[in-house]
Amino acid sequence: MKVTVCELNPDPRYIEQDWDRLVAHIRANESRLVLLPEMIFSSWFAESPDFDQETWQEAIDANKSWERRLWGLQPALVLGTRPINKGEKRMNEAYVWSAESGFRPVHAKSYLPDEEGFWEASWYQRGDGEFNLIETRGILIGFMICTELWFFEQARAYGKRRAHLIACPRATPKETLDKWLAGGRAAAVVSGAYCLSSNRVSHKEGRLAMGGQGWIVGPDGEILGVTSREQPFVTVDIDTEKADRAKKTYPRYVKE
């Protein structure tokens, strides 16, 4: 199965061009799955510690206005996250979208940072802590949204449930790129699954400069592809049977 990761700039000055290039890449490479960065269709509102209802609603509206554009990526499955209201709660919801099924919610982000530039717990509520798997087109997919990557017990649990792929949409600064790639490799080894990540990118300086660098990591931690400013989209053909076999090898078979 051909899968694609990317780095995209949500700034209105860049997103249209980035999106058109992504669509062209998906079609040229005949990709069947694409992972988008975390809440890519809105500004990074969590840079402020002060929740603002109008800004939150603008983020929801921006995502809704972009939903029709996902059709340009078909027949690929689209994985991503979006801000959404669930009853009285505000959530960062992971989804799988396809032309035939539309949006299928999978998991709401449950581990939320709350610090300078990343005041997420001040903007929306934690999910229920359920790290669900979704099966579609013969592949088992789980999500670990950004910060959740560091909770490796969830990666191990996904492996025990025979996940083929763990998706990690991110919003992370460029000064921490090496650390995040190391985390993705560890999550793959722990789970025996492919680990995919796509990240936001920006032209800002300092702590809020989102760093891009999406990646595809194999079930034994091998780096199969990494994006860059020069190559913002990477497609790799993965083998789900390799993930199945990995579950039977070290360290996955070791009993707790």
Q: What's the short story on this structure?
A:
The protein contains six helices and twelve strands. The chain has 256 residues and is an alpha/beta fold. The protein is globular, with a radius of gyration of 17 Å.
Helices and strands, with pairings:
Elements: E1 2-8, H1 15-29, E2 33-35, H2 53-67, E3 77-86, E4 89-98, E5 102-108, H3 120-123, E6 133-136, E7 139-143, H4 152-160, E8 165-170, H5 177-191, E9 194-200, E10 215-217, E11 223-226, E12 233-237, H6 240-246
Parallel strand pairs: 1-2, 1-9, 2-3, 7-8, 8-9
Antiparallel strand pairs: 1-12, 3-4, 4-5, 6-7, 9-10, 10-11
Helix pairs in contact: 4-5
Name some characteristics of this structure.
Nitrilase/N-carbamoyl-D-aminoacid amidohydrolase, 256 residues, 12-stranded mixed beta sheet, single chain, alpha/beta
Describe this structure in words.
The protein is of the alpha/beta class and 256 residues long. The mean pLDDT is 96.
Low-confidence stretches: none
CATH topology: Nitrilase/N-carbamoyl-D-aminoacid amidohydrolase
**Helix content bin:** 25-40%
CATH class: Alpha Beta
Tell me the radius of gyration: 17 Å
The first-to-last residue Cα distance is 32 Å
Query: What's the domain count?
Result: 1
CATH architecture type: 4-Layer Sandwich
Overall 3D geometry? globular
What is the percentage of strand-forming residues? Answer: 25-35%
* Sheet of most strands: 12 strands, mixed
Number of helices: 6
How many beta-strand segments? 12
Structural class: alpha/beta
Output the helix-strand order: EHEHEEEHEEHEHEEEEH
Average of the residue pLDDT scores: 96
Q: For this structure, what is the CATH homologous superfamily? A: Carbon-nitrogen hydrolase
